[in-house]
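User: Predict the complex.
Assistant: Input components as received:
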Amino acid sequence: MDLGLKGKKAIVCASSKGLGKGCAMALAQEGVDLVINSRSADMLEATAEEIRKATGVTVTPVACDVTTGEGRAKVLAACPNPDILVNNAGGPPPGDFRDWDRDDWIKALDANMLTPIFLIKATVDGMIERKFGRVVNITSGAVKAPIDILGLSNGARAGLTGFIAGLSRKTVRHNVTINNLLPGAFDTDRLHANMQASANKTGADVGELTKQRAAGIPAGRFGTPDEFGHACAFLCSAHSGFITGQNLLPDGGAFPGTM
Ligand code: NAP
């Protein structure tokens, strides 16, 4: 299926590895030119080269912290008029809400709520004028089924989800859609770091714990960044103009609800 994206331009935030990289690669395979981003310049350049070699598209790496105003300005300067915006950043740390002060909350809100909102603010009017735009926010399955130790994530991402629910109904008339992708458990460094943290806490064997976690998913395994990327590319496709304000949950069947 041709997704109708050849020659479009995308900003994919937080994309040197993991889910962001999966999205960048899948869009590049559709002929989309990219601005990719992460804080570490070396890994970002290596990822840019890997995508260029695999697909032949133009890939511009912008090394910065996208959760700061300065970082966002750098990303936008490299691609002021994107057709596609994929919002992503690292997730907040786990913990007990009794230990979090105002700064912890502001950091989580900056990274996982306000950064996507400000990037949308900077790009959506151009998309509306050009009558094409696709925004995908990488959030978390925790938006639908909160995870107790991830209170900062549950709170900040739920705030973003509420905002998007309103805005996405205003832009769709202009062929600008905004949707959220809610990852379940995907095989990335972040997932393995979380498994290691759980193992350290309980003294369990990390390999055994990881196996058990994967086995507990109806699919019997973790998702791959490649699968996640293709779900993102589908939401960005030229054929997806009637899908907006949705929360798509790629999780291998883990969420046990009917809807
Ligand atoms: P990952 O494998 O650790 O990759 C994170 C990527 O984001 C890296 O490229 C990292 O590069 C970049 N990054 C982090 N903070 C950044 C910042 N402030 N500015 C720019 N780039 C930044 O993580 P992932 O598993 O792909 O997770 C992506 C998002 O999905 C996170 O918010 C995570 O909480 C959420 N999520 C993941 C899962 C899962 O199973 N994997 C499940 C639910 C939700 P640098 O460190 O060099 O900046």
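The pocket of NAP is lined by residues 14-20, 37-40, 43, 65-67, 88-91, 138, 140-141, 183, 185-186, 188-191 (CB under 6 Å).
Let me know if you want any component modeled separately.
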